[in-house]
Amino acid sequence: MTRHVRLTVTAVATVAALTLTACGSGSDDSGTSGTSAAGPAGSGQSGAGSGAAPAGSGAGAPAGGNDAEVSDAVVKLVLNQDVDTLLPMDSNVGDNIGVLDVIYDGLVRYDPKTSKPYNYVAQDIATKDNKVWTIKIKDGLTFQNGEPVDAAAFARSWNYSAYGPNAVANNYFFERIDGYEPMQGEYEEDDAGKVTVTKEPTAKELSGLKIVDPLTLEVTLTAPFAGFSTMLGYTGFFPVAKACIDDVSGCAVKPIGNGPFQVDQWDQGQKLTASRWDGYTLPESPAFTGIEWTEYAGKSSWPDFQAGDIDVSAPPPALWAQANADPDLSSRKVESPGAALTYIGFPLYKGKPYDNIEFRKAISMAIDRKTIIEKILPGQAVPATSWVVPDGVPGGKAGTCEWCRFDPAAAKAALAKAGGWPAGQTLTIHLGKDETSEQYFKAIGDSIKLNLGIDYKLDPTPDFFDRRSSRGFTGIFRNNWFPDYPLNENYLAPVYGGGDAKKGNKNLGFYDAKFEQAIKAGDAAPNLDEAVVKYADAEKILAADFPTVPVSFSQNVAFYSERLDNVVLDPFSGSVELRLLKIKQ
Amino acid sequence: MSDPSVSALVAEETATVDRVQGGGSLWSNAWRTLRRRPEVIVAALVALFFVVVAAFPRLFTSQDPQRCDISNSGIRPQWFSGPHPFGTDIAGCDLLASVVYGARPSLLLAFIVVGLSVLIGVTLGTLSGYYLGWVDTAISRAVEVFLVIPLLLAALLLLSLFRTVDTGSSVLGSILQPALVLTAFGWMGYTRYVRANVLETKNLDYVVAAKVLGASDLRIMVRHVLPNAIGTVTALIPTAIAGVISTEAVLAFLGIGVRPPAVSWGILISNGSERFTGDSQYLLLFPLGCLVLTVLALVVLGDGLRDALDPKLR
Amino acid sequence: MGRYLARRLLQGLLTLFLVILLLHLLTTWAIQLNGNPALAFFGDRVPSPAQYAAVAERFGLGDPCYAQVGNPCLGPFVTRLGDYLTGDFGTDLRGRPVTDIVGTAAPNTLRLFAVVTITWLLIGMTLGSVAARKRGRLTDHGIRGLSIMIDALPVFVMLLVYRYVLAVPLYTWAKDTFGSNSTVALLFKPSFSSDHPMITVIVPGILLGLTGSAAFIRLVRAAQLENYNSEHVRTARSKGLTERHVVLFHIVRNSSIPVATAVGIVFTEALAGAVITEGVMNIYGMGGVLWKAVRDSDVSLVVGIVSLLAIVTIVVMILVDLLYAALDPRIRYE
């Protein structure tokens, strides 16, 4: 079960995927790859619910909505992960998110360039206090089976997700909505591992959801959250038809969507085909008639791409140089920065030498990030010099990490200052089980060994998460963080915050009262811009404490076939924006 | 594909019982035959060479295979004109050193697996064939159960089962687990084979005569039944070793073989085959060449031995 | 014979039971040592006990014994056996019936095995016979040397080199020459295609078959050599039958019996090759499914598939034994 929450690029083959997130090994990816939105939704704090619905609704589709003629081509794409469900409530890996993006429509969609959300299925989203949100839905929309897309369709889906015993992957997104707790029930686990139900869930529906009229949904949150509307375009918030809830297992294989495409057939493990849905009335629809996804489950589709059987792919690392040297191929390449951070954690709870900042500095400065990435993960990553992805999210800035440069002499000096490495001991590097990252971290280990003289050994482990959260690590460990929503706070508070003053936080054993204060100050800020500044202060505190070593940020890349045009990668998921894609005639 | 149990099973089908009494004349005959065959001599020398490489790697390289400098990544073979005769791999490790030090885990694994499997096989096969009855039933059932479970599935299951157990980073520690698993699923062929052999031998006149004369079971087994079986099992050993060396490469490809940081030929081949398509063919060709040479030498040796020990095919 | 058959069948059932028990114990132990796969479902999030229990229940791993190292978990085992008896092989972790998965995956693997077997037999019988006839001469040594060389090449090397180096130019050439949907073009398609399941497994099958053929060449050669020296062949020759007749009807036919049985025995062995071939060539087959199931600790899938495989293998083994008992009077079953 190494599935986890992975974020892979839908059609774009292995790139960011293998590097950072695939195989679930060690990634923190919370899989909300769709939630790429900056700041509060367009309609955010728009005063009275009815009135001025700003940016969103009217503006409609950004450039790229396809009113052009429709090509009768079938686009051939790839699924790299073991996709095992197409249920929106349960879809949290890059691949099924990518598929569902054309099968379903959400309340909002995101501008591919700025990540800003705009209303799509929603007519208007309004709130006065960031706590009670009123969502108005466009009239006349239906599911592919004819059922109406109304407030009930959304409530149905969200209630299903939020109900603990349904155990769907997107459950935790609903914890901000009033009435989430009573739907989880309480269980007790004795020492032998026997689970007894002490309290069945007392509710089956979120008390915070109220269907005001067929097209109006009122959502009450447990606490104000300015970013709530930015989450609403994520797969987990898609509406579902009643027929889908009646037959969940059927719907997981053959979804009943409300988007421009419908699934024709899914031969699980082999391929998935979808075609245009004639009843689609909204503007953003792909400019071709069909899509065929072939499942590769980890194997490279590159030869098939070269042979012309696949439209979008990326070469395995070994063929990277060759592909880039080919002028024809490299003219059909798109690259865009990703948002995932790979960093090295230390078992601060183990004491010496990990709790010594000089030791951590030594490790950091001993790693030749640039050369390692160039050789091992060409084109798939960029060296990191900060904890928050620069320019990708509000508050992200390059260069906040002072010791993220490669400097063997300074590294040796720092190690000496830290009292050296205990003679005869081996440094263990824990990481998830995933071939590419094993190669990556072998090179990092080699760098440490070469420049600091510390012998190392890799410990690839499939139960990375369990061992990390139970503090079972005896050496340094690889981590990936993929943000849930585009805000610098999301790179900081969930990873380093909320710890016990003595024992530190769960995974890392980190605690700094000043850091906690800075985060709190951000949370309490009157508006998002001020919050971002406070959160950036927290990053500075982190940079001084240096509990972890940033290594690299992901980079999305795709090569596409001659017949494709206007290939745009989603900044967060790295998948091709199918609704913008054009076919050359 | 060349699994030891298959070679053994295949050999079982063609096994013939030589009716040479006692060990001495059989072995000296065999030795005389082998000496006269040049290809066997060459094969023996090649095999011996790689055993020496595995035993004394320092004779062949002064570099440390674990010392890798990423800034030296992907240097092409320099032969005698630089510090990296075979070049370096993508992580900057010296390839010659890797190949030389990689011989030890690969060969040691093969010797251990075959040694243990033969030991188990001969013991159980003899007991089973000699006593029959419930001993035979129990052993035959065990053989069948192990034969039905595919080796690879068992390897995967067991290797993932014990992966939390730290066996240390010594050479022995890094091969211990694959060795145990391959042995656990490698003894059945020998058992069946020896059993069939014993079944035939014990009906031979001289064995029956020994029994009538009141020789003890142990004495009959050791003096009369075993030599027959061992003679022909010996012929299987080189081929079986070759089989395990190949199997190690397959395990390495699937990521469940010898544990890093130890380098084995299988790991080198598996890494090299990924890079083959670029312009780094040497990363595959050097370790693969060593593996193919060794396997070839062992199989020729095995064929020679079989011919020599099996008078019927002479 | 009838009594022997009945006994063999009973033994087969016992073996089957032991295999299922052994697998059950191994997978259970793996879960106990490595943690419940239900936990992995949540990735990095720490599930509430309710969610965890719900997922564990959905995976069929809700029984507390899975948390106690050393507990053989006989309760779930008995339940599973009972289900098997009613023809219910359970579902995988995602609720897809095992029989459904096998139904999709098995045909592809069987196609692959068919190509492999044909390759083995063709190469083994042809080259083995030639080697036996030209025994001791250059041809014999050449064939033996070549077969050993191919045998020594790990199958994944051949497959990777074929897929990444040869397939694309061959495929492009064939598409240009014969048309993009022609049989020749599809033959060289770099990956398996579920639209053309038979034709796209031919090349992978031949490559896999090549690596296993050395053993068969040797087997056929040895078996035929034995026959050349045997009495019935000498008799046939002395009767004045032509050499061609002797070779075809006495030597080749007699030596094909052990070869046929060996094909049966090698069945489970070929599954190892299938895991690799299916992985590299992107074939959705039993090897790949089993591989993934083991990695995911998908107990019901592992035990379900292997039980089905075991049934097939045991039937084959019984047939082989019967054949032997009938054919070879030298072996006495007491």
From TrEMBL, chain A:
This is ABC transporter substrate-binding protein. Residues 24-40 have a biased composition (Low complexity). GO terms for cellular component: ATP-binding cassette (ABC) transporter complex; periplasmic space. It comes from the Bacteria. GO terms for molecular function: peptide transmembrane transporter activity. Transmembrane segments: none annotated. It comes from Nakamurella aerolata. Gene3D superfamilies: Dipeptide-binding Protein, Domain 1, Dipeptide-binding Protein, Domain 3, Periplasmic binding protein-like II. Pfam families: SBP_bac_5.
From TrEMBL, chain B:
It comes from the Bacteria. It is found in: Cell membrane. One of its GO terms (biological process) is transmembrane transport. It is a multi-pass membrane protein. Its main location: membrane. One of its GO terms (cellular component) is plasma membrane. The keyword Chaperone does not apply. Residues 103-302 form the ABC transmembrane type-1 domain. This is ABC transporter permease.
Automatic annotation (TrEMBL), chain C:
The chain crosses the membrane at residues 12-31, 112-131, 143-165, 198-220, 259-281, 301-327. Keywords: Cell membrane, Membrane, Transmembrane, Transmembrane helix, Transport. It is a multi-pass membrane protein. The lineage of its organism: Bacteria, Bacillati, Actinomycetota, Actinomycetes, Nakamurellales. This is ABC transporter permease. GO terms for biological process: transmembrane transport. GO terms for cellular component: plasma membrane. It is found in: Cell membrane.
